[in-house]
Amino acid sequence: MASPVSVSDVLIIGGGLMGTSAALFLRQRGRSVTLLESDLVGRQASGTNFGNVRRQGRPIHQLPLANRAIAIWRRANELLGADVEYLQSGHIRVCYRERPENIAKMEEYAAEARHVGLDLELLTGNALRARFPFFGPDVLAGSYSALDGHANPRLTAPAFARAAQRAGAQVFENTRIIHAAKQGTDFVVTAEDGRTFRAPVLLITAGAWGNKLSQQFGEPVPLTPRGPNMSVTEPVPYAIAPAVGVMTPVEEETVYFRQVARGNIILGGSTRGPSYPDQYRAYVLPQNTMKQLRQIRRLAPALANLNIIRVWTGIEGYLPDSLPVMGRSATTSGLFYAFGFSGSGFQIGPGVGETMAELIDTGTTPIDLSHYDIARFRRSA
Amino acid sequence: MADRELTPRIVVVGAGPAGVRAAQTLLEAGIRPVVIDEAARAGGQIYRRQPTNFRRSHEALYGTEAARAQAVHDGFDAIAATVDYRPDTLVWNIADGQVWTASERGYATLAYDALILCTGATDRLMPVKGWHYAGAYSLGAAQVALKAQACAIGARVVFMGSGPLLYLVASQYVKAGAKVAAVLDTSPLSNRLRAAVDLIAQPGILADGVALTRALAKAGVPVLTGVTPLEITGNAENGVNGVRVRLANGTERDFAADAVALGYHLRPETQLADLARCDFAFDAKTRQWLPKRDQDGRASVAGVYLAGDGARILGARSAEVSGRLAALAALADLGHKVDPLTLVHLRRQVASYARFARGLATAFPWPHEQAANLPDEAIVCRCEAVTAGDLRRVVNETGAKEANRAKAFSRVGMGRCQGRYCGHAGAEVIAACANIPVEQVGRLRGQAPVKPLPVAIAPEGEE
Lengths: 381, 463
Prior knowledge:
Chain A is α+β, with helices and mostly antiparallel strands and 381 residues long. Helices cover 27% and strands 27% of the residues of chain A. The chains are: A alpha+beta (381), B alpha/beta (463).
């Protein structure tokens, strides 16, 4: 067999936000790292998502991880030496009149979140409209998080990759891994073009492609590729500080928007579209764009005065319980996973990288990963 | 006309010379097509019609092309009531065998058995420092002002760029009584001699072109060739006050003007072909990506056909022929009998126009080297105000050398025009900065909507 291109302490497959941030934090811990990306870093789920840096709405058990991430977001520009357009300008989650029971749910969530360091303010009626006059008449109440915000996904993972490189990580783009196995004490992974890479630790952060690798270690997971439904308006004067989202059990109603400093308003949500990991393509379905615009008009009627200039999507991996696979392999020592973030990995991404680096480096982490254990799919998959 | 069938449904997008001739050809075969056009009146850009309350003659509007314009207009007027004609309607997306339209009435979908894209062209633009000032127009826009609104873009206009349209629009301005300060062509005169071997393929058009140049000279308009644009001078408050160029002999010269019309020939509007998932290939002669199509206009996707300048810049006359050919190709593929001799005859005509177009590309090349020399402060992407320096910084600091990657990092091509006007120049700036061939930079992926779409849009018939 040809000698490997690289031998390092840790091999990471998948150059999204999870993989690139893990690479940087592993380097900060003095581990040598090789990061393998099949395309370009941060191009799919990490680069095409909405850009919400929100903690609220996440499962309560995930908030310690989200808090760890927000500390990194706050120093991201300095850490990365690049502006990732992080704005800690607030996040508001609203519910509609036809589901008043959501107010009680918001209150309950806020009470629990407070114990985990997330302060939420419940706003209704005139108080809500005085602060956020853009909401439509269907909006009943809102839960406001002053210390959440948003950032630019297109810039973030590539900035982590460059920072990791400067810190000494080796990053190989356009490197499609077709085979991964443990030989003795080392993992040997092979690219489509025959190059091999070797390390005693392997971290798989391959998003929608994660299952292709995990199943090579006897751990298939029921991962479904989908794509976010995104649109952006022309730029208008900056006026909307918080990222805004709807709390509802109905997927079609789940829309969100945020205004970037440049002035464009990014619209996201409603029905997600299909994506095709094998072809590296995802398509926005026009009917989904139309559903999204209808829901946006309901949420904030004044946005109807704008035009959308572009739509986009990418390739995201979803798991049936909307929770990621994160932690150790159940079959193979030295193997770790962090993938399948099911459309809600952006905010926690840097925290995931730091946590995985900690787990790999020290063998333990204070973050509770029990909900994300890959073994939960042992029977179903 | 009751015997003409709506099935199979053939959708023609665009009612310029290609779309009109395609629609006529389909009707002749007994099929009633749907003709969707963004404009209020058929004719396309080249034969754009004036508003209904204007009364200028075809001769006044179209000069040497009056008879052709008249024929296309009359041709369409004769079938407008028979085809399913949808003016003022934008096709903003294509997916799963349906076109998605938008108009004042809202949005609608329309399934097709065959789709003939006759989407036309827009100006091909190379940035120059100062081109974002008020008073800087594209050549096409300068012509639209004249044709549609009967007004000039300024009191003293410089025409700068290259290509036949430069001379055509300048002479139309002279004829309309506007003051043309100068015609500044970036192409050296010697190129035209080298191009003669191909230009002779269309002696009539060539003679018209020579006559235009003579008419400009006769009107006392300075016509300079081999010019290098340096700057459109002016300021944010008052707009353009002139242009500065380097002449062929190396000296710099200023021309006073309150408006500039810029353009380097045309580029096809290929976003719909892209959304229909057609394959593209790089055309080395014109340094741009074009949708693949066979000699009759079949795209790489079954059921999609490309005609006119939206496929290749071969000119309006060729568009009439390629529109017919694409319609015949669609008919043949749908099982209609098509006369093979007609095909041979039409293909031969297109080949002749293609040879002439090759000559034009030799005579008036896209001055890609200007992108390398563009000063850092010059704006490349006007929608997003991204300068050449911004773009070069992204290339150098992040290593982004692919068009979409550089767009993601720099915002070049991310604005209202979606890279239609800055995409080619942006790719040249990246290529020069990264020292790689421009084809390696790739092309911006087309994304819906083709033009800005109101958030307010609802289904047709609702509210």
